[in-house]
Amino acid sequence: MERKFQTIRETAKLGILSEYNLRLRLAQGRLPGVYAGNRFMVNVPMLMQKLDAESEQGGEVNAR
Fold first, then answer.
1. Fewer beta carbons within 10 angstroms: which end of the chain, N or C?
2. The pTM is what?
3. Cβ within 8 Å of residue 4, ≥6 positions away
4. Backbone torsions φ then ψ of 39, nearest 5 degrees
5. pLDDT digits over 14-46, tens only?
6. What is the CA radius of gyration of the chain?
7. Which of these, 36, 47, 39, lies nearest to 4 by C-alpha position?
């Protein structure tokens, strides 16, 4: 069973987005997940939903 929360590096290895793009989204407040100590854990299923929604809007993104 695949874990729901993964580190940024683990998420990048899935091939969804690059590590750079994931860290950029984190800095912009657009990466779903939580901090566990000093490590950010990405909610991968929620990320996939957000990317699907962005693609339906033609790439237009509302930051908040």
1. N
2. 0.84
3. 43, 44, 45
4. -105, 130
5. 999 999 999 999 999 999 999 999 999 999 999
6. 11
7. 47
Measured between its terminal Cα atoms, the distance across the chain in Å is 32
58, two tokens: 């033609």
Can you tell me which residue has the tokens 């874990």?
3
pLDDT at 58: 82
Is residue 48 within 8 Å of 42, Cβ to Cβ?
no
Query: Under a CB-based contact definition with an 8 Å cutoff, are residues 42 and 7 in contact?
Result: yes
Q: What is the pLDDT confidence band of residue 64, given thresholds at 50, 70 and 90?
A: very low
What six digits make up the tokens of 32? 């779903």
Alpha-helical runs (H) found in the chain: 8-13, 19-27, 44-56
Query: Tokens 């800095």 label which residue?
Result: 27
